[in-house]
Amino acid sequence: MRQGKREAMSDEAVRLDNVALRYDSAEDVLSGVDLILKPGSFTFLTGPSGAGKTSLLKLLYLALPPSRGDVSLLGRRVSALKRDQISALRRRIGVVFQEFRLLDHLTAYENAALPLRVQGLRASDYRADVEELLRWVGLGPRIDANPPQLSGGEQQRVAIARALVNKPDLLIADEPTGNVDPEMGSRLLRLFGELNRRLGTTVLIATHDLTLIREMNAPVLRLQHGLLVRDIEFGGEAV
Asked: Which range marks the domain in which residue 32 is found?
C-alpha cells in the first residue's frame, strides 16, 4: 500500500480529560476517564460486556459528545471545533465497526472506495490505490464481487479496506474479529500491525479475544463499570 502524505500531528493522538458519558439513565456509562494515546501507538481495549468499550469508541470517532470532560483528537480539542472542522477531523479517523455496514448493491471495490467518492474525488485519481489496498488485504480476485457473494471474513476485509482507504491517522476497531474464525482473526490483526508500522497510524482495538491479545506485545487497557484501568500487564485471564 502506498504511503500518502500525512498531516503534522501533535505529541498526543488521543487525550481524554475527566470524561464522562451518560445516556438517558441517571447513571454514567463512563465516569472520570483520563486517557492519552501517543501517535503511532498500538493499544488494546478490553473489559466485560457492558463495561463501556463501545461507548468509549463512539466518543473517539465523534459519534457522541461527552456528558462532561474534554476530548482531544489528533491535536484538536473537539468541543472547540466548528462543524466543517469536525468533518475534516473525521476524515482522518478510520473506523471498523462490529457490523460490516457494507452496501450490498456495490462491489467490494465500490464499498472500499466509498469514502473517497463521498469526498468528490475522481475515480481516475484513486482507482489504482484502492485496487492496491484490496490486494494488500487479500481481496484482489474478489474486487468485483458484491457483499452477498463474499464470505464473512472477506466482507470484514472489505470493511477494513474502507476504513484504511483515507490512510487514517487514527484507526478505531470495535471487536473487528468477532465475526471471523481464529485464523482469519490472526490475519486481520497482522494487517492492523502492518498499518501501524508502515504508516505510523495510531491503532486502538476493542476486543474480548485474549488469544489475539497474546499475539501482540502491546499495552492493554481495561474498562470496568465505566472506569478505565491503564497499562495492564497481560497475564492471561486477569486481563
From this structure: 1-92+168-233
